[in-house]
Amino acid sequence: MGIIIILGFLFGRKGNNKNLWMLVGAFVCSIIGDWFLSRMNGDVSLFVKGIALFFLAHVGYLVYALLNGKMHWKATAIVLIGFLAFFFLVLYPKITDTALMAASLIYLLISCFSLGASMGMAVDQTEKWSYVVGIGLILFSDTIIAFKEFVGYHTFDFLITPTYYLAHICITYSVIKRFEAAAIQTPNVTQ
After folding, report:
1. Distances from the Cα of 187 to the Cαs of 9, 54, 182, 190, in angstroms?
2. pLDDT computed for residue 186 by the predictor
3. Contact by Cβ (8 Å): 67, 92
4. Residues 112, 118, 119, 120: is their CA dihedral positive or negative?
5. What share of the chain is helix, strand, coil (3-state, %, to 5)?
6. Looking at residue 147, what DSSP letter applies?
7. What pLDDT shows up at residue 187?
8. What pLDDT does 18 receive?
9. Phi, then psi, of 53 in degrees rounded to 5
10. With a cut of 70, which residues of the chain have pLDDT below it?
11. Judging by beta carbons within 10 Å of its beta carbon (0-12, 13-18, 19+), is residue 181 exposed, middle or buried?
């Protein structure tokens, strides 16, 4: 639904909205990544392929945020320190496959940079914070997945899907707010 809504704004509104293609691409990569993860059944190569597609999704989220602002380096550093500590203290001792370890670390890095870039967006505050919450929820969902897949901790598994879907809803809502703000700034004047 997020893709359909964003495409509606892309084709239904005038102006330079080409950066919305970044989000369409991110959502498509997420869908394909979900497909790989839902079929992995212990196959590490499918897990790595899924992570690679989610990496590409985060590239889309990152580029979109940077096209609408700049990197918030302080927030990025704080998030990076926390997630790198989590990776090396909690996940690293549990991951035995080298490709999976590398893919997980690279994915963790792009995720942190996506969140940092979202915090640096120079847009309407509702638009910005909806986007920040969306990216933050993806990181939250991914953290629960990491606990489930690598640590064997399952207490919060029930939150994976709802937070993941809510993340995409928040990102889509951010786009809706973008066009609401644009409509308020340039009202239609009939003569």
Report:
1. 17, 38, 8, 10
2. 62
3. no
4. positive
5. 80, 0, 20
6. I
7. 56
8. 83
9. -70, -40
10. 15, 185-191
11. middle
For residues 125 and 133, give the distance between their C-alpha atoms in angstroms, rounded to a whole number.
12
| Cα(2)–Cα(28) distance, integer angstroms | 10
Q: Quick one: pLDDT at residue 182?
A: 74
Q: Which residues contact 9 (CB under 8 A, 6 or more apart)?
A: 17, 20, 175, 176, 179
Closest to 30 (Cα-Cα) out of 59, 69, 68, 67? 59
pLDDT digits (tens, 9 = 90+) for 157-174: 999 999 999 999 999 999
Cβ atoms within 10 Å, residue 82: 11
Rounded Cα distance between 119 and 79, Å, is 11
Q: How far apart are CA 183 and CA 71, in angstroms?
A: 27
**Residue 179, pLDDT score:** 85
| Cα 169 to Cα 83: distance, rounded to the nearest angstrom | 24
Q: Is the dihedral of CA 47, 48, 49, 51 positive or negative?
A: positive
Q: For tokens 């973008």, what's the residue?
A: 178
Residues facing 69 on adjacent strands:
121
91 closest CA partner among 78, 79, 107, 72: 107
